Every structure is written in structure tokens, then in C-alpha cells.
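User:
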Amino acid sequence: MSEQPFSLRRIAVKVYSPSLLYGLGLGAVTPIIALSALERGADLATAALIVTLVGVGSLISNVPAAMLTTKIGERLSMVVASGWAALGMGLGILPSNLAVFSVGVTMIGMAGAVFNLARQSYLAEAVPLEFRARAMSTLGGVMRIGVFIGPFAATLAMKWLGIAGAFWVAMAAMAIAAVVCLRIPDLESRAAVEVGQTRSGGSMVSIAKDQWRILLGIGLGVVCISAVRATRQVVLPLWGENIGLDAATISLIYGVSGAIDMLIFYPAGKVMDKRGRVWVAVPCMAVMAVALFLLPLTHSVPTMMAVAMLLGFGNGIGSGIVMTLGADYSPISGRAKFLGLWRLMSDTGAMAGPVVLAAFVAVATLGTGAVAVGAVSLTGAGIFAYFIPRTYRKRMGAP
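Assistant: Predicted structure:
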């Protein structure tokens, strides 16, 4: 009997629906974490610090996430992560003190590290190479759709339940995601491993030593793109306020940028599959660099809207690029551990980007900070342009 050809549509509901639900839950609570902290007695500085605990939780959990995924598998890891996130949301619902709430926020970040690594590892093994970029970009796009829907669902719930309504929505989404993950089929490759092969691939240190050229080459490009992506979420609202726009207008500009970002993920994945990763990685970084260089020149709603749309387009065409490159360069033996190191670099960039912006704002101006982050983006484009063509074909076994 001939094997049925692979189809993304056939696996879409089971594989992508947990990510949609997870993104919805994350989107529901992200805008109100600071407000919840203020309700519990935090001042503005402390509230801002508590928001960063999501990133801290993810950063410190990447290595444990890799170990857990290697031990129990991708499917069960996603179940555990969704359940852990639901517990974290539950701490947000309780009328607790600031310390307990901070633990809940950190738990959300920890769960994200496990969930994101496990879903990436699952797709890397489940999807053939010729469909990989489309699968990964669709995964990133579905997650963004969930994050986009989340605040609207939270707004409806908060009309009846107050600020805790957002956490109720998120907890329900995470709980449903855990149930859906239970129905995802186990990977066939895992059954083969149980016969006698090994997926562990040695220790994290040995994998880092074996893959150091990739981690210090393309990995630095990943640090750059993650730094720019994290910073764009901060610099747009700050620049809008800097030129005197009201909160509603800033929100509209940010929303339009996010909508463009969200809508172009599949074409980007198709280009990566048909033409190669470099055809998306370099333009993504170059376009965001141009947008950040232009941002300090905007002083009105139309000009800032145009630059925000360009920034959203640049980020959108790179949907899934970090996950795709991670899957491409990950060894079959020890894949989860390599992806743990990959995500550690990505999260390091995401944490460092806003810090770079803040440092330039402190010593110069916000416009200077935007240009500096644009330079980081241009550097990332150069790294990708240099390393990807020299390593990708060799890694994939092409002549």
C-alpha cells in the first residue's frame, strides 16, 4: 500500500489548535499583568519589573525544558506546560499578595519555555523537510492570531468578572490546550527510538561543543532578530507618546502593525521552502532596520503609521524563521537539547533588546535608541547573509 502524501491540512487541527489556544491565553493576560500588580500594591517600577518575570521564567527554564522534552516526549511536555500555565493563571485569579502573584507570572514564563520548545521539536520531526518552513511559519502565525484574539476575549470577561476575568479566560484556554495536546498522535520516530536508538545525544555541554560553529554563527543572528522583535513592541508606543499622540491612536497604530505582521506568515514560509531560508531571513532584518532608521523622522499619525506598517511587514515575513533555522540545524540525536540552547540564545536576545534601547535613551534620546536597534537589525541581516548560504546546503546534505 502506497504511503499517503504529506499534507499540512491533514495535521492542522491537532497540531496547531493547541498553539492557537495557548496564544489566546497568553494574549489575554499580557496587557493586564502590570495592572494586576498595581492592584496588589505595586508601584510603577515594581509593576514593570513583574512584567519582565515572564521573560525571566522562560530564560531560566530553557535547559530544564530540553531535559524534560527529551525524557517524556513532545506531546506530554506540551500537556505538562499547558497545565503548569493554567496553575500560574490560577494564582492570578486568587486575591493574593504581590509575592504569590509574582510566582504565578514566573510560572507562565516557565511554561512557555517548555511548550514552545516541545511544539518546535514535534514539528521538526513530524513534517518533511520540503514543508518545514511553511509548517513553522504557520505555527508562528497561528500563535500570533491567538495573541491577537486574547485581549478581546479578556475584555469581554472583565466586564463581568473584573480584572480577574482575563486570568479566567487564560486559565480556560490553557486547560483546553492541555486536553487537546493529549489527542495529538505520538511521533513515529519515538517508537523507533524505543527499539534501541537514542534521542538524548549526550549532555547539553557536549552538544554545545559539537555545534559551537552554528551557535556562534547563525545563533548570533538569532540573538539579533530576537532583540529587535522584543524592542519593536516597546519602541512604537514610546515613540507615539514622544510625538504627542494619545493612547487610542497609539493603540490603533500598534494594532495595524500587528495585523500586517499576522497576515503574511504563510507566503513567507512558502518562499523559505521554495527559494531557501536566506531569502526571508535577510529581507526580514533589513526591512526592520530601515523602519527603525525612519522612525525618528516621523512626527505625525500618517508617517508613523507608514513606518509601523513597514516594521510589521518586516517582522511578518520572518514569521517562523527562528524556529525553522533551529529545526534545520538541530541534530536528530539530541534535537530537544540543541533546541533548548537555541531558545536560550533567542530569549537572551529578547531580554537584551529593550535593555539596549533603555541604555541609549538614558544617555541620549529615544530616536538614537531606535537607530541603535536598527543597527542591530542590520548586523543580523549581515550575519544571516554570510552564514546561511555557507552552512545550509552542507547541513541538508545537498551537493
